[in-house]
Amino acid sequence: MIPPKPAPRPDKVSLWRYMRLFRQDILSAQPERLYRALMAEFRTPFFRSYLCNDPKLIDLVLKDRPADFPKSDRISEGLAPLLGNSVFLTNGAEWERQRRIIDPAFAGGRLRNTFPAMLLAAKAAAARLAAQAGREVEIEAETSHAAADVIFRTLFSIPIEHEVAAQVFDQFRAFQRQQPLLNLAAFVPLPRWMPRFHRRRTKAAATAIRALITRLTIERAAAIHAGTAPDDLATKIMTTPDPLTGVGFTPAEMVDQVAIFFLAGHETSASALAWALYLLATDPEVQERAAAEVSSMPENPDFSDISGLSFIHDIFRETLRLYPPVPMMVRENRCPVTLRGREVAAAAQIVLSPWHVQRHERLWDRPDAFDPGRWQTAEGRASARAAWFPFSAGPRVCTGAGFAMVEGPLILALLLRDLRFVAAGPAPVPVAHLTVRARDGIRLRIERRG
After folding, report:
1. Is 437 helix (H, G, I), strand (E, B) or coil?
2. 411: in domain
3. Is 7 part of any domain?
4. 11: left (phi over 0), alpha (psi -120 to 50) or beta
5. pLDDT at 240 over 90
6. 285: how many CB neighbours lie within 10 A of its CB?
7. What is the pTM for the complete model shown?
8. Is 285 part of a structural domain of the chain?
9. Which residue, 10, 85, 278, 424, has most beta carbons within 10 Å?
């Protein structure tokens, strides 16, 4: 089955046309040749950018010399109103300090401890969708609800129905649709004193979200002081000192981190789950095989039961290959470097694109096909080792990658155990806002299994 992908732009367009396309959707703003190229150079009046699809270059940037290729400030231009100084945007010593405090909360043992809260959210999602059996639904809205529920239950021990959680969820949905990954300031170098040209509604949504997160953080700090805080991710992070300095996050710093946890843990999972259900709905044979695997799962699975769902995991990996929630990553070289024989001056933008690498014609067999079976072949596994990095790689690999690889298969398993999904409406068109979503949503019909 060949699922949809955006139509590429013509190979040559004006800079103004390219900027407009990029602001609307970075996927359709790219030419078809990038699915074959190992490196490509793009020139603007203000900077050079190099798309690096060669796995050796990706390893160089992410694994071998990550300190020489920090995150580009151009990404923070668009996301700073929401994410502030979070671990997603920082570099150097500040990023290292933040990771030393955050990483213990997502270590293996702690991940097992979050599973009961994940399971409650997954069961709630299955019940909500079961209540809509026989109807056509917009599935992205449902997976957003489910992923947000997981985050609030694991982070603050509150369900999505909680007053503050519900408000954050509503505001974030507005922010997600309004905020492009890159704004004008990402293309044109502006002095720090100049406005960043954020849309008024986007700034208002970011302000509202941060105010609500501040309220949750202050309440949790008070509970920690009183000795009544639950043992969840927020408590773990807020009570973990930096092992080098003995100092933990201030409440203001914690607001920045919670914002990125919600973005990374909710928005990306919602995207992946929605595309996974669409792919299953358009391939009934794969869906029935997945449902058969789930049929042996206990009514109340535990952490170890999820690791046994090998085909469900392969479906989720294949979904992340075809529709990586974060389609592109941007780094900046601090010093001159030679890339594939080309001299690249310092301060160039180094673009690593999971979207193109994971659909690359030289790196994958039938790259545009939905084929979960490829993950059990020697060729497929070799391709994955070289050209699959939806969570980034190296020191800056997403700290919640393990979390996501439990959450996604768990929710899919509970949904497929009792429900069947059937494609309805027109084929969705992938676009990139904060993550890869469908331009007009994804409509599926829900049926109960006999």
Report:
1. strand
2. yes
3. no
4. alpha
5. yes
6. 8
7. 0.93
8. yes
9. 278
